Amino acid sequence: MSLSFVFLIIIFAAFCHAGWSTIVKKSENGLAMMGITSIIEIIIFLPLIFTVPFPTTTIWFFILATTFLHGFYRYSVVKSYQHGDLSFVYPIARGGSVLIIGLISILILRADINLAGIIGIILICLGLFMISFLTTKKFNRSAFIIAITTAGLISTYTILDGIAVRKSENAFTFIYWMLLLNGMPMLIYAFFSETGLQKKNSYKIRDGVVAGILAILGYGLVVWSMQFIEIAYVSSIRELSIVLATLLSFYLLKETDARKRVMPSVIICTGITVLYFQIT
User: Fold this and answer.
1) Nearest-CA neighbor of 100 among 158, 26, 25?
2) pTM
C-alpha cells in the first residue's frame, strides 16, 4: 500500500469531517442531525457486517468501549456548539486531542515518531489553539470545559480504534461493527428527546443524510489508515479539516472572524507538510 495514497485518503477524510461538522453546526437541531447520521450508519453497515468474519472476544471489547465513548463524544459536540461558535470550540477539541494522542503515542505506545514528526505535531497543535484564542471575542468558560472534555473523548476512542484495527485479523470486521454501533447511544437519545427527532420542523432529513455519509467517510477512512501510519500522525494530518472548516465558517456560517485564522491555518498546513515527508 502506497503511503502517499494513504495520506491522500486522510486528506479526503478531512474534507468529509469538515463538511459533517459544518452541517451539524449550521442546523437548528444538531441533535437530530446526529440521530439521522446514526440511522444512515445502521442502514449502510447492517448488511456489511455479514461479509466479514465475526469479531473475536478481544475485538468486542474495543467495539463496546468505542461505542460508549462515541456516544458521549457526539453528545458533547452538540452541547459544545450550543455554548460557543464553531471557530472556538472545534479547534480546542481537535487540538487538544492531537496533543494527548501525540503524548500517549510517544510515552506509552512507544510509537516510531522522530524529532521532525514531533515538530510537525506541535505545529499543528499550535495552529489549532491559535485559531480559537485569536478569534474569540470573549473567553467562554462553559464552551472551553466542554471542548476539553471532547478532546479527551476524541483522543481515547481514536487510540482504542487505532489499536483495534491493527489487532483485527480482518480490519473491516472492526471498522464495520464500529461504524454500525457507535451512533446507537446518540440515536436513542435523539429519538426520545423532545428537542431531537421529535422536533420535526427544526431539521431537514436531506441534510442529515448528507451528514451521515460524510461522517462515515470522515472517520471510517481515518481508522482504516491507522493500519499503515502511526496513530498520532493520522490524527494530526486529519486536522486539515480545521482549515477547511475555517473556509466553511466564513462562506456558509458567515463568521466574519475567519480572516484571523489565515496565519494559524498556514501553520497547520506547514505541520501537515512536515508529517507528509516523515511517512513517505
Assistant:
1) 158
2) 0.91
